[in-house]
Amino acid sequence: MSHNLAPSSLRAPLSIAVLIICFSCAPEVTTTVITGSWKDPQEKTYKNFLVAALVKNLPARSSVEGEISRNLTLERVSAAKSYDVLGHSEKLETADEKRAAVEKIRSLGYDAIIAITLLRQEEESRYVEGTSSYTPASVGVGTGYYDPLNIASAGAGNYGAFGIYYMDAATPYNSPGYYVKDKIYFVQCNLYDLQTGKLVWSAQSETFQSENLAATSRDFGIAMVRALKEANLIYRK
């Protein structure tokens, strides 16, 4: 019976260590807020989208296009990344090259194109307050286990003696405060009808990010597809 107390005492620090590791590995929280939107009064839905992030940074382009495309397919419509269709180039396109790109897109059967542009980017600092908590620590007195028949004794060898354990088992742990730099992206998302070339929907958003492109793109993709869905622009079977 005495041997059952030691493992539970040892498991507590291990459990807390696992929790600390899990929380430290959790993805950073990002938030996308739609700050304004406009929709053409026409009632039309689309089921074959091409997603084009008009940015020079290839990883950013691929990540944003991929997340919006993935979320559109979850709505049971077709979606493709412009990178897969048109490739990537950082040079300024000529008028002829733009026309050729549009004709290629139309020839592949897409009925709408989503164009994402970065309007501007800002950076701000915020202070993260420190924390104070308690964690189990080694008792450090003796090497034996608690003897239930010798409760009155609190000398060396009585690992579980309440007086000793209570005084040594809780150790304060302080985490100092620190500053982090957050990036804020101001983004515009336009939806064009490829049959007419008309702009049929536009939204602007603010996305707050802390150095994590994947999490930012994921959050942005969810928010934009949700907005398209609420505007009744995604085809329903």
Descriptive report:
Helix 2 crosses helix 6. The N terminus is likely disordered. The chain has a six-stranded mixed β-sheet with strand order 1-8-7-4-2-3. It has a two-stranded antiparallel ribbon with strand order 5-6. With 237 residues, it is of the alpha/beta class. Helices cover 34% and strands 32% of the residues.
What attributes characterize this protein structure?
237 residues, alpha/beta, Rossmann fold, two-stranded antiparallel ribbon, 6 helices, 8 strands, 34% helix, disordered N terminus
Whole-number mean pLDDT:
75
Tally of helical segments: 6
Silhouette: globular
CATH topology of the domain at 29-128 and 178-230: Rossmann fold
List the helices and strands and how they pair.
Blueprint: H1 5-25, E1 31-39, E2 48-53, H2 58-73, E3 78-81, H3 82-86, H4 95-107, E4 112-128, E5 131-136, H5 162-168, E6 170-175, E7 178-193, E8 199-209, H6 213-230
Parallel strand pairs: 2-3, 2-4
Antiparallel strand pairs: 1-8, 4-7, 5-6, 7-8
